[in-house]
Amino acid sequence: MAFKISLQRQRTHSRRRLPTEQLVRPPGRHFRPTDIRRAAAAEVKATVIKVSASGGGDFKTISDAVKSIPAGNKKRVVISIAPGNYTEKVRVDRNKPFITFHGDPQNPPVLVYDGTVDSATLIVESDFFSAVNLKIVNSAPRPDGVRKGAQAAALRISGNRASFYNCGFYGYQDTVCDDKGKHFFKDCYIEGTVDFIFGSGKSLYLNSEIHVIPGDKMAMITAHARSNNEEDTGYVFVHCKVTGQGPGIAYLGRSWFPSPRVVFAFSELGDAVHPEGWSDNKQPSTDSTVYFGEYNNKGPGANWEKRAKFAKKLSAADVEPFISLAFVEGSKWLLPPAKV
């Protein structure tokens, strides 16, 4: 299957960084010191496996490289992926932690598959996964409202403490299943139409572009699956950019579950964003339980004049817990992108 994506769609942003004092915080109440020791020990003397679709590497497919890693792996394994298209569905099982997929920043490899509902192109269930310089595509056709099960995820991340740097995620409906666990996305590109960032993860998206594909009468960016206010989950977008042709078709999030928690801060919201900003999914009973917050955004989509009544215009004190790596306990596990 031939499938190409213009490199012009992958962008690296250079906006303001999070303040230094906000990057290091005490660990949250769920943190265990043994996690630090385990993570630190795993990073010593990483093993590198080379993958090249055209030959010349240790393997020709990413799947075969993953299969070669033993269950119960305790050391970082970097799978260095040469430029090219890899038409395969890849799964990283829960018993294979500490794996990194690493591509060329100038010519990122493209992992592509055309699975639909319950069939993401990349499924990651292991902890401490990382991806750097990679494009992940679900090439299934755009949902037409007639076909059932037309959702087409590019990524499902269900492991804990995962990071994604300079990665692109391409699809239509349900592009990124940010399923569960703590995750960090930086300098990434995510596109879609309906619920294209969804799940019950606790994730920080930094300096990334969220692109609404034109053509639908209405689009939903996030659908966060939080059942009640006791669940410590949520999606936070800091120094991000919402792009796409509008005007005013895309909601930042909707009430898929009773208590979703989504925050946009210091971000640029384009005219694709609907004036109301957020949707209660025609369930007014959730208006008092959702946490849809905004702080210091700019752009035509950030106008507060017609915002939904249940949206929260956050103060500096309100937003403070969300806009640091401490939101995902990152100072205790998060590492810079691997160098190969």
From TrEMBL:
It holds the Pfam family Pectinesterase. The active site is at D195. It catalyses: [(1->4)-alpha-D-galacturonosyl methyl ester](n) + n H2O = [(1->4)-alpha-D-galacturonosyl](n) + n methanol + n H(+). Belongs to the pectinesterase family. GO terms for molecular function: pectinesterase activity. Residues 50-330 form the Pectinesterase catalytic domain. It is found in: Secreted, Cell wall. The keyword Hydrolase applies. Keywords: Aspartyl esterase, Cell wall, Hydrolase, Secreted, Signal. This is Pectinesterase. Its EC number is 3.1.1.11. Pathway: Glycan metabolism; pectin degradation; 2-dehydro-3-deoxy-D-gluconate from pectin: step 1/5. InterPro entries: Pectin_lyas_fold, Pectin_lyase_fold/virulence, Pectinesterase_Asp_AS, Pectinesterase_cat. Gene3D superfamilies: Single-stranded right-handed beta-helix, Pectin lyase-like. GO terms for biological process: cell wall modification; pectin catabolic process.
